[in-house]
Amino acid sequence: FPSHDRAPESLMEDVRKVFPRIDLDPFSCEEANKIIGAETILTKEDDAFNTPWPSAEYIFINPPGPVKGEPSTKHNTRRAWELAVDYVGGSILWVGFSIEQLATLQDSVLYPLGYPTVILGNRIKFVGGGNNPSHANYITLLTNNSMLVGDFVTAFKNKGRIVGLACFLEDEQL
Question: Which of 10, 11, 127, 171 is 20 to 30 A from 94 in CA distance terms?
Answer without folding.
Answer: 171
